[in-house]
Design goal:
The complex is a heterodimer of chains A (about 550) and B (about 130). Chain A is of the alpha/beta class. Chain A contains 22 helices and 11 strands. Classes of the chains: A alpha/beta (about 550), B alpha/beta (about 130).
Chain lengths: ~550, ~130
């Protein structure tokens, strides 16, 4: 915009504000200052002055083109909708398999597997530490046998599957490959994602096993294996979701996620991979929180910043390496146990902002998730919410519809600037791994979480049903309960498996795995062999624990 | 109130890594003048009971959302009893279904705080309970 036009706008706005002064005296605004949920100042009015230095072609460009601010796909949802992918898993492989078939029958377009905590931490169901946890927050998977049951009757050549698994991601991916092979599906035809993002486990989610260094090796081995063998597979989902759930702001979510992304790219390059060999298969995962417009700006800022990082910092040449593709989940931490039906509305707004931000894949939380895992009825409403947005609201008919809004563009710039400042700070600390080891990232997140809670308790931030418009609402009575007998059934199955398998074959495979772990060869190959020989998840992880050791965090409050 | 500061052990039993709540509460208790010892993640019932004994705490705050409370909380209560720590006030929090609460209270858990509880409520509750005990 030329200086003359800007000057005219500035003068007009200043006069408007003068005219406003008496009105403000008579009708004061609700608050002295307004802030986004993340604490960014919100002005009364945004005009072209707030994004006067925006260079359309350099900063926004066209959809499907660098820097991808307006989306990674040239036609966005005019071509096809995002993948509707509800995160699900509970109890045993049999029960979860039924839930998957129900969801696919309701029009869900991709699977997303929730594993129980012992599985996520590499313990079999009969381990002492698994007591009380088997099948509770996800499905219990001890061996290939359980994985076969989990996907029984689901053609893996036709569905894409996301698995929320990090430290033992290599083992679960190997099991998935082995099930596909039994179904007659080639690795090259598999589509899906493993989360495989260990760095956010240390800072935000806690399901780590090994120390950072061997964890990074496992991850780069997976990158190498996937780019050779499963070209359509997303070898990682670099996740801000959990960083946000742990209490971060939107700016921190972008900053810490992309800083972790930088660490993975650097590790892979250091391991001898070419950035354009694995870069196109990196994917991301963000949270969709309550501040509707801030969230839309967040996705746009993250996309632009990642494109710039890949091109300028890592010298990527393949445009696909620069495209930030992401899954979104609505923010579990915003749901209230008070007045649960309100959560349907919260989730709808959050899902809408993810769609306006151009997500590739979406999970909508169920209304009862502040109380338990979702019931079938609750998850159906959550899925219908996505289908309503896609088919009835019209927001999917044009690309990046809020671009050019003075506020959205200004906020996109602000979030990018804030994230760059954090990334520079993390670089000064030596990168994400040292920043986590020094507790920097954890401390920043904790301070933000505490600040948010204080804002709720002081009434600065309103939460309907919690600190305003409270009622003595009735609690929903039909919550999902996991039968504690699941553990006994899992243990019986495991005992039978160990008796019936070829024990020489599984022992040999574990021995080979140990040798590989002590050397430098790719770990995926011996892990796949061990899985096929029905070595259990716990046995495989124990071998790796023996070689790599376990991570010992220091608790900081 | 005694001259000694109220000592609280905050703990995450089991395998769940969601420690936002316990960290926020720990910060609030500390800001309210209490001495807070946070155990970190993945604590076994044995570790929690031992730490509580060694640190001579007045209160133990247990946080869990994985659904393993029905096994882990009663086990912790058994161990405290074995160690002769009947006077310690044990509080629970997290995602704990209403219907499970009476059972946990009958095992000696003092109170369960649900999602949405204000940290100020917990601070006041601890202050009044420790004073009266």
């Amino acid at each position: 915009m030329d200086e003359k036009t800007l000057q005219a706008i500035r003068e007009a706005r200043e006069k408007w504000e003068e005219r406003l002064t008496p009105k403000l005296k008579k009708f004061p605004e609700r608050k002295e200052s307004f802030e986004t949920i993340s604490g960014l100042q919100v002005k009364r009015l945004y005009t072209p002055e707030d994004c006067s230095d925006l260079n359309y072609l350099e900063d926004l460009g066209l959809p499907g083109e660098y820097p991808y601010t307006r989306g990674v796909q040239p036609t966005a949802y005019r071509g096809k909708f995002w993948t509707m992918r509800q995160y699900a898993g509970f109890a045993s492989a049999e029960e979860t398999n039924e839930r998957y078939k129900f969801l696919l029958g309701q029009g869900q377009t991709g699977l997303s597997v929730a594993f129980d905590l012992p599985t996520q931490i590499g313990y079999d169901s009969d381990h002492q530490l698994s007591l009380g946890e088997v099948g509770k927050v996800g499905v219990a998977i001890d061996s290939l046998l359980d994985m076969e049951t989990l996907f029984s009757g689901i053609p893996l050549g036709q569905v894409s599957t996301s698995m929320t698994i990090n430290s033992p991601a290599s083992v679960l991916l190997a099991m998935y490959i082995a099930v596909a092979e039994k179904q007659g599906v080639a690795q090259a035809d598999l589509r899906g994602t493993i989360q495989n993002d260990i760095l956010k486990e240390y800072s935000s989610r806690g399901t780590y096993i090994f120390p950072p260094r061997p964890s990074m090796r496992i991850i780069t081995d997976i990158f190498a294996y996937c780019s050779d063998q499963i070209p359509q597979w997303n070898s990682i989902s670099i996740s801000g979701y959990h960083i946000r759930e742990a209490g971060s702001t939107a700016v921190q979510e972008v900053a810490f996620t992309l800083a972790n992304g930088i660490a993975y790219v650097q590790a892979a390059i250091d391991a001898g991979l070419d950035v354009d060999q694995f870069g196109p298969r990196l994917s991301f995962f963000f949270n969709s929180h309550l501040d509707f417009l801030e969230e839309i700006a967040k996705y746009r800022a993250a996309r632009r910043l990642w494109a710039r990082i890949m091109k300028e910092r890592f010298g990527a040449k393949d445009p696909r390496s620069m495209m930030l593709r992401f899954h979104t989940q609505t923010a579990g931490c915003t749901l209230t146990a008070q007045q649960p039906p309100n959560n349907i509305v919260r989730v709808a707004f959050q899902a809408m902002s993810a769609v306006l931000g151009g997500t590739q894949s979406l999970h909508t939380n169920s209304m009862d998730e502040a109380l338990s895992l979702p019931t079938e009825e609750a998850v159906q409403i959550a899925l219908r919410t996505q289908q309503l947005i896609a088919c009835e609201t019209g927001v999917t008919d044009t690309i990046d519809p809020l671009a050019g809004s003075y506020y959205i563009e200004s906020l996109t710039n602000k979030i990018e600037e804030g994230a760059v400042a954090y990334i520079n700070r993390i670089d000064e600390l030596g990168g994400s791994v040292p920043a986590i080891e020094q507790g920097f990232i954890q401390k920043e997140i904790q301070n933000a979480a505490y600040g948010y809670q204080k804002a709720i308790e002081s009434g600065d931030r309103s939460v309907v049903g919690l600190n305003i418009y409270q009622t003595d609402s009735e609690k929903p009575s039909n919550l999902l309960r996991v039968d504690p007998e699941v553990r006994n059934r899992q243990i019986a199955k495991l005992t039978k498996l160990k008796k019936e398998r070829d024990s020489n074959a599984s022992a040999t495979a574990l021995k080979n795995l140990e040798e590989t772990a002590r050397g430098n060869e790719n770990l995926m190959v011996p892990i796949l062999d061990a899985v096929k020989a029905y070595a259990t998840l716990g046995e495989i992880c124990d071998v790796l624990r023996g070689v790599f050791g376990e991570y010992q965090p220091s608790a900081i409050i | 109130m005694s001259e000694r500061k109220i000592r609280v052990l905050t703990a995450k039993p089991g395998l769940d890594g969601h420690d936002r709540g316990v960290k926020v509460i720990s910060a609030a208790l500390r800001d309210a003048g209490m001495e807070v010892i946070y155990t970190g993640l993945r604590q076994t019932p044995e570790q929690i009971a031992t730490t509580a004994l060694q640190e001579d705490v007045d209160v133990i705050g247990l946080s869990i959302l994985s659904g393993a409370h029905d096994y882990l909380f009663p086990r912790i209560m058994e161990l405290l009893e074995e160690k002769g720590m009947k006077d310690v006030i044990v509080l629970g929090g997290g995602i704990i279904p209403e219907e499970d609460i009476p059972g946990l209270l009958s095992k000696g858990i003092d109170r369960i705080f649900g999602p949405g509880t204000y940290t100020s409520e917990i601070v006041q509750y601890i202050q009044s309970r420790v004073k009266s005990s």
